[in-house]
Amino acid sequence: MTAKITTLMQLSLVICLSIASSFVAGQALNSEQKTQLKQLQSTALQSQLSYQLIESLTTEVGHRLMGSAGDEKAIIWAVNKMKALGFDKVWTEPVTGSYWLRGTAKAHIVAPYPHDLVVLALGGSVATAESGITANVAHFETLADLQAIPDNSLEGKIAFVSYQMTRHIDGNGYGPAVGTRVNGAVVAAQKGASALVMRSVGTDNNRIAHTGIMRYQDKVKKIPAAALSNPDADLLLNQLKRGGEVSLYLNITARTDAEVVATSANVIGEFTGSEKPDEIVALGAHLDSWDVGAGALDDGLGIGMVMAAAHHIGQLPQRPKRTIRVILFAAEEVGLLGAKQYVKDHQAELDTHVLGAEWDFGIGRIYKMTPGVGAQSLNAIRELGQYLAPLGVALSAENNGRAQSDMGALSDAGMPSINFSPDGEHYFDYHHTENDTLDKVQPEALKINTAIYTMFAYFAAQSSADFRH
Amino acid sequence: MTAKITTLMQLSLVICLSIASSFVAGQALNSEQKTQLKQLQSTALQSQLSYQLIESLTTEVGHRLMGSAGDEKAIIWAVNKMKALGFDKVWTEPVTGSYWLRGTAKAHIVAPYPHDLVVLALGGSVATAESGITANVAHFETLADLQAIPDNSLEGKIAFVSYQMTRHIDGNGYGPAVGTRVNGAVVAAQKGASALVMRSVGTDNNRIAHTGIMRYQDKVKKIPAAALSNPDADLLLNQLKRGGEVSLYLNITARTDAEVVATSANVIGEFTGSEKPDEIVALGAHLDSWDVGAGALDDGLGIGMVMAAAHHIGQLPQRPKRTIRVILFAAEEVGLLGAKQYVKDHQAELDTHVLGAEWDFGIGRIYKMTPGVGAQSLNAIRELGQYLAPLGVALSAENNGRAQSDMGALSDAGMPSINFSPDGEHYFDYHHTENDTLDKVQPEALKINTAIYTMFAYFAAQSSADFRH
């Protein structure tokens, strides 16, 4: 290294320190609290608690779709764990909805060249006739291409949308891909198709399909909908490229039992604030998962992070000023039922939720935080940003952050929020698949993310800033 | 870059050129042939033929286990392709054996925490009773640990061997892992176990199990044998770590129909030598595959490479001096039946096979060649090494090369051979799984490897070197 470079680096350091010191005046945390914050960082970075919670949940419960036996076990698991972790209060709030049963899904190419296909029913799909459907395939590269053809022009055909999700660090390939999953069956039915088959919304190349929620519309015929694994979608395309007719067999036995109202619950635990117990810092994750895989990433990671973060703070000699509330939402995957119920149940006291964040975005390290708060509190947010910067978190210049998944519903209802963005490059390799298992958790990233959530929650609970819009 | 470094590089270049020129005297190829060799390299590097062959095989045939419908289709496919590619002679030689039918394999953890497991029967396994087996698990970290316990000490238990294959560039983690697959059921039966369950021999972390051949021994009870995916083996271990009894349910419906003698065939094609038609340069691959996946890597890659290599040489205005014979072996996966039959059928003329190489090692680029030839021909091999060096191939200092898989049987019978070693780091992520599909082929590595095989075959066919031991 040349002397010139060294001097430049020293100069930069001086500038950085100057910037840091400019935040000393009017800081949210006093020096004792700053010491505690550092201790919490150290505790979280050394603790394996968040990993242990995910290991326990995936080993002892496994997957847990709304209304299933696993869902029921998960609620008991969460209540018991919260009690064991020393939460001051633990309770459940009922959430009702319908219970969709996956049954089986089988598919194969009939002609020109027979092959078995790896396929999963989309969540909520109706069944095929018991004997299945055999039909020629009508191929569309995108949902827009399917939308563009005349209504009732696909009679007797299976619509196949082959759009492939792209990989990005912020997961922005998901948006353009997921529309087919959610709305594809309605569009295909309007065109007269007897079923929708789509390429999985996922970035991997495994013979493993990705499920996820889909929707029907009143007055539009309900047709079965399924996702092919990426390699199976490739194979179907390669047969289509040869120019002749390609026919598929599809058999799905899924059903939603309309008679049964399934009961689940939001599981809620608190460390009660010492000075302002009625002001709530909210940490969220969802307890349910798809019925494939073990829900280790989606959202075992969130469960582990927010429970561990609250526990670490609860181990301090004194409770922080504000209450820290952990909300483990029910039935996120099947349509944010737990979040909607929470907003309904807590409408009158939503303005006591002073700041909230959820974790429901998988494996990678957090690299950015985006606040969505009243402008008067941005200095406090910048102070938090300073504390989190050494963990690799950059503060976004935007102030339009919306909390992730369930808590997005609380953000929309007015709750000040922070959205923490992780490296999402590999998340959609595993999302909503059998491959969502414990081995995919990255313990080091998990420790860092848990530390960030711990420090965020402590900061928000000790700060006297008013984050409201 | 400093002037000093530039000068050093120029000096190195001069040294390299000097070394190269020292091979001019007594070279195997004359200047016209060297020009042809370069043309062949250029042709192979630009051609997509090897990829197209794999695409065709995996799309139009799919998997092809000895004796299956796919096997029959693959033989017809190979004969037709060889004819279309202009081979001078194409014929088949029958290979017989038994046909193993996989049926279904299901497993789940019964207690303490129920979970479905992803499992595949090992190739050749017998079935469980129709109602399956439910038994406590006896865990062993290695096959040696299982071997070390007293005979008949596992009555009423399922033996579980959890050894995990390690990842290496040369695939050397396979050897220590595969013994459990091949011999584990015999050892477990000797100990009195009712079934063997093992962690898959594979380096991936997918919910996809790896199959592969296993063996029984006369006078030892035949017990069912199955492989768990790596994440499922982890889950089972995590339940075992809790200390209590863990029980498994296993149901396998596989069978070998002893009444049926399955017929398959080695498919053989030649470009006949112009001067020494009775001297054979042999290129091998195997046409069969496991009945999961599409056999794109194992051994579609070999099929594509050796057929394309021979075709490129066959497009020259004149045939090389020696015959180039492509042998697509039957039934490699179930015990090298095609190779053993070939050695038997061609015993009398094996010494006319002047040099041979197979490709049955997957995706990665070749980085090394190891000859197994008579010492008198090592100068010629060094010359070949010079031609291949620009493609990244290092010549091993050893002269103990044995051809891969099937052709290993020909090496053992005395055929001079070359073993080309590829980057095998990712091969065992996909080996013997449903994930062995076209998308795993790396087109650029395939082009380079095809160029290497093309140049190797041309060199061996034009050279007058005697490679015999």
Summary of the model, kept short:
The structure is a homodimer of 469-residue chains. The first copy, chain A, has 469 residues and is α/β, with parallel strands linked by helices.
Report on the architecture of this protein.
- 2 copies of one chain form a homodimer.
- In chain A, strand 6, helix 5 and strand 7 (157-161) form a beta-alpha-beta unit.
- Chain A contains 13 helices and 18 strands.
- Chain A is of the alpha/beta class and 469 residues long.
- An 8-stranded mixed sheet of chain A has the order 4-3-10-6-7-8-9-5, with helices on both faces.
- The first copy, chain A, has helices at 3-21, 31-46, 49-60, 69-84, 143-148, 174-190, 230-241, 296-314, 337-345, 378-388, 405-412, 427-430, 443-462, and strands at 89-97, 100-101, 105-111, 115-117, 119-121, 133-140, 157-161, 195-199, 225-228, 247-252, 255-256, 262-271, 276-286, 322-329, 353-358, 366-372, 394-395, 417-422.
- Helix content of chain A is 36%, strand content 22%.
- The model of chain A is unreliable at 1-24 (pLDDT under 50).
- Chain A is elongated, with a radius of gyration of 24 Å.
- Chain A starts with a helix and ends in a 7-residue tail after the last helix.
- Chain A has 2 domains: 28-99 and 260-462, 3-Layer(aba) Sandwich (Aminopeptidase); 101-256, Glucose Oxidase, domain 1 (3-Layer(bba) Sandwich).
- In chain A, helix 2 packs antiparallel against helix 13, helix 3 packs across helix 8 (296-314) and helix 9 (337-345) packs parallel to helix 11.
- The A-B interface holds A 55, 58-62, 112-115, 118, 205-208, 230-231, 234-235, 238-239, 242, 293-294, 433-435, 437-440 and B 55, 58-62, 112-115, 118, 205-208, 230-231, 234-235, 238-239, 242, 293-294, 433-435, 437-440.
